[in-house]
Amino acid sequence: MNDYQNCAYNKHIECTVSQCQYHSACDNYCTLDKIKVTTHEANPTMCQCTDCSSFIAKA
Ligand code: SF4
User: Fold this and answer.
1) Average pLDDT for the chain
2) Residue 14: enclosing H or E segment and its boundaries?
């Protein structure tokens, strides 16, 4: 995927994780059609307990 294709982001998924290979090169959005949100806690109680499981680090 080149930078031009990365500009076709999903306006319904805002994201500021620019280290992810699915992050838009043009704005703070995700380029995927959908993502999976999970938790690393047994009993999540705040936003910080959740994770984007679709994250893949840039090569
Ligand atoms: S996959 Fe998750 S972390 Fe990566 S850009 Fe999309 S929303 Fe952000």
Assistant:
1) 92
2) strand 10-14
